[in-house]
């Protein structure tokens, strides 16, 4: 099956570069790459035995399965440009890797008889050196039936875990990914700002919270969110939460809405706290 598929990557950057390296390592023939960062595309192409080309249509003409790993806003325009240049063909596989967009972004390829799909790894990728992150990652698949079979097999081949995603639920699915990945980074930045205001040295601010974050992730690997929750809300410590709120009001009031909103979510997870403590926490977090 591997030998019957030739893979092309349009947009061989962060996600595309990682996928190209992973597929090549799994024994697939990656034959053509294109990227705005032409030097990095050429280096990757040389590494995996592919060719680097300037025009996306050249990738489409060279491969039987093409991944569009461009930014979301470019997927439909690039697909349309290739269609206008008669680069797509009947029976060809055309796939994008956006978490937010459905197969409608590939309508111009489908219009000439190509089979289209979505292949979205639930993982942060940053080029070929991060290809190993795909091992154990979940991959959302939405595709024409025969292509879906191929994409599931490819996910397994790179050590990932495929699952089917209903296109009607894509927006909520992608929201979950953004909140857990991107917003965790944003929360980490908030924590660093709090440490800065607390007078913690710069070199400590940047690293001190990482073990705490790793510990939380490790707990979630073994337990449900309710079981993994620790801290003052989990133990019903309204006095500590009151001190947090007072400190934020005095020194960083812009973070208070975030603290309260996430506190209410944490309170909904807390199970073993007395009712009077729960009521006190509710009053503090609702500012009433």
TrEMBL record:
Residues 5-121 form the Putative oxidoreductase/dehydrogenase Rossmann-like domain. Residues 138-264 form the DUF2520 domain. This is NADP oxidoreductase coenzyme F420-dependent. Pfam families: DUF2520 (PF10728), Rossmann-like (PF10727). InterPro entries: 6-PGluconate_DH-like_C_sf, DUF2520, NAD(P)-bd_dom_sf, OxRdtase/DH_put_Rossmann_dom, TM1727-like_C_sf.
